[in-house]
Amino acid sequence: MITLDHVSKIFDSGGQEIRAVDDVSFEVAEGELAVLIGPSGSGKTTTMRMINRLEAVSEGTITIDGRDATAMNLVELRRNIGYVIQQGGLFPHFTVAENVSVVPRLMGWSKGKRRERAEELLQLVGLDPSIFAERYPRQLSGGQQQRVGVARALAADAPIILMDEPFGAVDPITRNQLQRWLRRIQAEVHKTIVFVTHDINEAFLLGDRIVLMNDGAIEQNGHPADLLRHPASDFVREFIGEEFALQALEHTFIAELAKPNSHEVSSDAVVLPGTLSVPAASRELTHTDNTDDDGFWVSNDDGEPSGYVTYREFATVLGEGIVSDAEADDDGEEELSDAIPAQ
Questions:
Q1: Alpha-carbon distance 31 to 4, whole Å?
Q2: Alpha-helical segments (H) within 16-158
Q3: What is the residue range of 202's domain?
Q4: pLDDT tens readout for residues 227-239
Q5: Same-domain pairing of 118 and 263
């Protein structure tokens, strides 16, 4: 849906060339939520703003659904790309329903159709239209304003939504609620979303894809598990920070670790569904006495044992070095069993 091909943004500062974005290339598939993340000044917001031409591209090309964005009519381009910013960006003199209906009104929709669409979207974002439609932005909480901002971005059924740190101005509890709410909304509407944030936990919670930027360039572009299990640089590992191992647990699926079934399953073994992620499944680990290493079984979609994961393999994926030597002696294996006891 969105392709950036060797895109750069160059600013002139007193005759000096500054590359705010330097040779950036990535793709966002239809229906994917891609997170642009990085420290301040990394170029993530500038990159996003070039997609709807709020910033002009200095070098390279951006294509939207196969069309060169610079060749598209600017009004048409922006009406087909929803845009959500911090604090909603709502018009204070418009009611909630009028704010949601801004783009449909510009597109010439009838008053009745605009009202119907506004009420439908307010219901979708969890705001009862009978209560909120006639309120003004000043009568809403910060979290409610952000929901209205998202409803407005969805109003004309735009296939692409750009979100520029939309939850950055609300308190941590509301932010957490909005993040989980957005995941539920995305599961229903399946829009192509580019989401800018500086919060690594938010990136891992929301992103189907994470594009980690630094000094205007991409450090790593991949699925959350890729960054955790195969960090491309020391910067990637350091940016993820101290919660690296916990994030690895959440984004590693047991089925990814399982070796093909080559043992008999002991009668007292618990077979874990391979589709369960590690945090949910780890509470059910059990020893199996008839294998070379203690561990647990993983099932296929039919519930039949299809693979086996040793505690050594399970621990290694955490990246904490509980057992780093594949040829550890028996004493090392006993220490591992003690470190991760069966429950």
A1: 17
A2: 44-51, 74-79, 96-100, 102-106, 111-124, 129-132, 142-154
A3: 2-242
A4: 887 889 999 988 9
A5: no
